[in-house]
Every structure is written in C-alpha cells, then in structure tokens.
Design brief:
The complex is a heterodimer of chains A (295) and B (272). Helix content of chain A is 70%, strand content 2%. Chain A is an all-alpha fold. Chain B has 2 domains: 33 residues, no CATH class; 215 residues, Orthogonal Bundle (MetI-like fold), CATH 1.10.3720. The chains are: A mainly alpha (295), B mainly alpha (272). Chains A and B meet through helix 1, helix 3, helix 4, helix 5 and helix 8 of A and helix 1, helix 4, helix 5, helix 6 and helix 11 of B.
C-alpha cells in the first residue's frame, strides 16, 4: 500500500465513530422524519396523507400560530437585548480596573445554573404573593403584578429571565473579540481627536461586527428553541401566553403522540430557521466587516 | 473619574446578577415559620440546615444524584475519547470527501434537535430501550457532538505536525501517535470539552424527560420537577433542592474557571 493510501484508510477509520453516528442519529432520522411528516402517524393509525399535516397546521391550527407568534416575539426582544447586554458587560469587563476576575465570575455564574434549577429559582422570583420582584415593587409603592398568571405579563417575564444569562458564553465571545482589537487603532484615533463615543462607533463596532454576527445567528436559533423554562414555570400558560414553538412541538410528539404532525412541525421549524439564517448571511455583507478582506 | 464610574457599573451589575442566587441561598436556610413571616429577608434570623436533609429524603434524591453522576461520567469520558479520535482523523489525514464530511459535521450544529428527535425515539422504542439509560448514553460514543469534535480539531491543528512525523519515523503507529503524542499535549482542550460535556449532561432535561419513566431512573433535573409538583408551595425545601442541583456546577466553574474562559477564546470562535 502506498503511504497516501494508507493515510486515507486510517483517516476514514478514525472518523468512523462520527460517521456512523451521523448516519444513524442524524441523516437517517432526518430523512425518516421528512417521510413521517407526510404521514398520519399516531398510536392507532399509520397512513400516507401527503401534505395534509402541513396544510392543517398552516390553515387550521390556531395553536401553531399562537406558539409561532409567542416565539417570534420572544426572539425579537431577547436577541437584540441579549446582544446589547452581553456587549455592555464585555465592554465593562474589558476596562483596566481592580477586581475584574471577581466581577467576571459574578456575571458568568448565572449561565452555569442548570436550566431546571434556574426555572425553579425564577418561578419563585416571579411568585405573585411573596416573590422578590413583587416585594421590590411593593417597597417602591407600586402594585404587585401577577407575572406568571396574567397573560399580559408572562412573555415579558420570560424575556426578563433570559437576560439573566447574558453574562455567559456570548459575553465571553465578545470579550475575546474586544481583546483582539489592536490598541494602535485607538491610539491613532486619539491623536486625531476622536471622542470615546466616536472610537466606539468607528473602531469597536466595525471590528466586533463578525463576532456580533456570530452571536446573532446563534441567538436566533437559541431563541426559537426555548423549552425547559416554559415547561417548568408555566406549562405554556396562562391561556397559552407562554406556549413556545418547541413546547408545542414536544406536546404533539410526546404527550399526544401525533408523530406525523410533530415531524411536520419540526420540518417547518427547520425551514424557518434555515431561511432566517440565510437572510442574515445575505444581510451580513452590508454591515459585517472582516479585517484584511479586500474592499 | 472614568474608572470610578466603570467600577460602580460593575458593582451594580454584579449585584443585580447575584440577587436570585442570594435569595435562593437565604431561602434554603430559612425555617418555614420565618419564610411565612418574612419571605424577602435576605439574611435569615435563625438560619437552619434542616431543609437540606428534608429535601434530600423527601424524594429518592440520592438515587437521582447517582443516576445523573453515572450518565454524566460515562458520557463525558465517551465524548472525550471518541471525539478526540474523530478530531485526529479530521486534522491529520488526507482522504477523499474529508472537507465535505467536515462541513456536513459543522452543518449539524445548525440542525434543530427536534428534526431528528421523533425517529430517534422510535428507534429506541423498537429496541425496547425506553426507560433505560441507553438513549442518553449511547449517542455520546459517536464523537460526542459536532461542537466537541470541532473544538478538539482546532486544538490539534495548533500542535506541530513535526511531532507526529518524528514519532512515525520512530515506528509508532497512528493510534499510538493519538494516544502518546496528541492526547498528552491536549490538556487544555480535554479540560474544556470535559467541562462542556459534564455541564450538558448534568443540565439535560428534555432527553431524560422523554426517555425515563420510572422514578428510580430519574436524573436530578427530572426529579426536581417531581419535587416541584409534590412540594411546590414549600419554597424553602424547593430552594434547598435547587442548591443541591446548582452546587456541583458552581464548584466546577470555580475550580476550572481558567480553562473554561480560555478554552472558548482559543477555539477560534472569536470570529476570525
């Protein structure tokens, strides 16, 4: 055997675990779920129905639209707020002041809390009778709010809770980006008399745009998958105000056992996320700046 | 002046982020009488440890913890071993379709889990593996996920190839190079990947919720939810149980902080 051939054989051998897993747990199931989505498949029946599942979901399923609306609203609020929040924290932590490691730990820790424990802690923070938030409102002389029982406030409560995690991985990625910006740009700008704000606008933001883009793409995908907190804190209530897409899909699959419909919901989600990601990639050419790329 | 403002913002911000923690802790140490009287007090007047043993024995918590530890440890070791093998293959060998396969692997990171969830569930059902640990453990033996493999491959690329070549000259086989040359030099990335794998499994909720039915097989996440159902109004004990769940991750973070924050930045995810 030639050396090249031997190398190729060994290379394939080493990636075999992933390849087998990919075929058995990703590619195969993907195709199967596409096929299932064209079937009426529950505990009693299993028959091919063509696009009937999709037609019903899109035309005659108010809960699908409700869950989509909730999820889109959640994403519209949490993605920009999350990016702004994590960028703000990263900017603060990038300053040269005392005690940065302690502050970094304080900001990062909440994102380490297991999802279920986090949801329990927050359902207590939002507790209508004696939760911390209402106690604070009472202290300020404001009326108590039924955070998780009044459908006008529930989505807002979830957005608020998501902000607790902004000090996590996304912030670290921003921080790494900030530390990668060469000091010389700022020095040159200072000599030219640029204000702090101008430096931020014309140096920091463009240099960070690739990182921001990365955070945005992953943020949108993450926002569309919110599940555990809603499952634990409200079970989608009140009056479906926190019925998020992933929760609705889970119910159809593992509570009503409508596998065909749930597969169709999953593919709709996939196509939607793929579309959103492509749009973001297309848009990114307008605002994302890559250092060293010829203009 | 500017430094003082930054410092003030940092203090205010970290306090805000720590509030839910502080109250969780203080509630866990309160007696039920005190909690009923003054739920918002930050410092309990008569701190008690009684909630912890109560929460610990109200449900089979020791069993939940044992189950979670078993699943987490097996998955973590399996992800590191198989993931590093795959990463070795992708970083050091030239073969047909390598780049296509690598891109396919990266693309799976974008795939919402729901798309494969139902068929995978049906596979395990047909194998009569529902209500066993198999559906939670076996997938970790196939590389432990794309992100895991990606992190390790990026790290392997930073190790000079000359080391491989030298070992090859000395008559080492490829598996020996993986085991004797690459792994001993990969401490930081192995630590990062292990921490991620540990956290993901300690935290996992949807998988155990779908696959485990009998309470004696529950993990802490699913068990805590059961606790919420049966002791939902007993906040002191619920918070004590939550503290038990949170504690290992916080301890792990404090110990491994350095690796943790570094591993992310050196992984090349900084956008360049």
């Amino acid at each position: 055997m030639t050396r090249q051939r031997r190398e190729a054989v060994w290379g394939m051998a080493f990636i075999t675990p992933w390849l087998v897993g990919f075929l058995c747990f990703t590619l195969g199931p993907m195709l199967t779920s596409l096929w299932l989505s064209l079937n009426k498949y529950d505990l009693v029946t299993h028959q091919f129905v063509g696009f009937e599942n999709y037609r019903r979901i899109l035309q005659a399923d108010p809960l699908f639209w409700k869950s989509l609306q909730n999820t889109v609203l959640y994403a519209v609020f949490t993605v920009p707020l999350g990016i702004a929040g994590s960028l703000a924290i990263a900017l603060l932590l990038n300053q040269k002041v005392r005690g940065i490691p302690v502050f970094r730990t304080c900001f990062y820790l909440p994102s380490m809390v297991p999802a279920v424990a986090g949801a329990l802690v927050w359902s207590w923070v939002f507790n209508a009778d004696n939760g911390v938030l209402n106690q604070a409102l009472g202290f300020l002389g404001l009326p108590h709010i039924q955070w998780l029982q009044d459908e006008r406030y529930t989505l807002f409560a979830f957005v608020l809770m998501s902000l607790w995690g902004v000090g996590g991985q996304r912030m670290i990625i921003f921080l790494a980006g900030l530390q990668g910006i060469s000091e010389t740009y700022y020095e040159a700008a200072k000599i030219d008399g640029a204000s702090v704000l101008q430096q931020f606008r014309h140096i920091t933001l463009p240099m960070l745009s690739p990182v921001m883009f990365f955070n945005m793409v992953l943020g949108v995908i993450g926002a569309f998958q919110v599940f555990t907190s809603a499952y634990i804190m409200t079970s989608g209530g009140p009056n479906n105000a926190s019925l998020f897409y992933a929760l609705y899909l889970f119910r159809n699959a593992f509570e009503y056992f409508k596998f065909g419909k749930a597969a169709a919901l999953a593919w709709l989600l996939f196509v939607l996320l793929l579309g959103l990601t492509l749009v973001q990639f297309k848009n990114s050419k307008k605002w994302v700046f890559y250092e060293g790329e010829a203009k | 002046m500017k430094k003082a403002l930054v410092w003030l913002a940092l203090v205010a911000g970290s306090l805000m982020f720590c509030v839910p923690f502080a109250w969780t802790l203080s509630t866990a140490f309160k007696t039920s009488e005190e909690y009923a009287r003054n739920p918002a007090a930050l410092v309990p007047t008569h701190p008690t440890l009684a909630n912890f043993p109560k929460a610990w024995t109200a449900l089979p918590f020791p069993t939940f913890v044992l189950n979670t530890v078993v699943i987490t440890l097996v998955c973590t070791v399996a992800s590191v071993v198989t993931g590093s093998l795959v990463a070795y293959g992708f970083s050091r060998f030239r073969f047909r379709w390598r780049n296509v396969l690598f891109c396919a692997m990266l693309a799976t990171m974008m795939l919402p889990g729901q798309v494969t969830q139902i068929p995978v569930f049906l596979i395990w059902r047909d194998l009569h593996a529902i209500d066993t640990f198999a559906p939670l453990i076996v997938p970790a033996f196939f590389g432990g996920g794309a992100f895991n493999i990606f992190l390790m491959r990026q790290f392997f690329l930073t190790i000079p190839r000359e080391l491989d070549e030298a070992a090859l000259m000395d008559g080492a086989s490829y598996p020996q190079i993986w085991w004797r040359v690459l792994l001993p030099l990969s401490g930081p990335v192995i630590a990062t990947v292990s921490i991620f794998a540990f956290l993901a499994n300690w935290d996992a909720f949807e998988g155990p919720l779908i696959y485990l039915n009998s309470p004696e097989k529950y993990t802490v996440s699913v068990g805590l939810r059961m606790f919420q159902d049966s002791y939902g109004t007993n906040f002191e004990q619920l918070m004590a149980a939550s503290v038990i769940h949170i504690l290992p991750t916080v301890v792990l973070f404090l110990i491994a902080q350095r690796y943790f924050l570094k591993g992310i930045s050196l992984s090349g995810l900084g956008g360049r």
